[in-house]
Amino acid sequence: MALRVKAEQRDGWTVLRVSGEMDLVTSPAVRQHVHDAVADGRRRVVLDLSDVRFCDSSGVGVLIAARRLMRSCTGRLRLILPAKGAVDGSHVNRVLAALGVRRLFEVFQDLDAAVDETARPLSA
């Protein structure tokens, strides 16, 4: 399955809806979209990973690099990783948890929560 990234704006946040597979070949596209958002002056980015069906170590590396980039420009990065989904939850959520890096991210159940300044992230 190919990777698709669709960008939109919502309540002052740049939302990047990612679908497909994040692997060695496709994950650089996600990195580029985050870099483009920062280059455009956006400092609040939500990565909606609800429809990512596969993520390997290169995809995880892109997420960690995106976090580092956003922190370096005093920006904020939030992820959408639903706990429940088509196959008992988000694949990316399980991968991040298995690698012990899930706690590095602000994770939300859905877009409404991710763009709400008063919402609390899901626990790791």
TrEMBL record:
PROSITE patterns: STAS. SUPFAM superfamilies: SpoIIaa-like. It comes from Streptomyces silvisoli. Residues 3-118 form the STAS domain. This is Anti-sigma factor antagonist. InterPro entries: Anti-sigma_ant, STAS_dom, STAS_dom_sf. Belongs to the anti-sigma-factor antagonist family. It holds the Pfam family STAS.
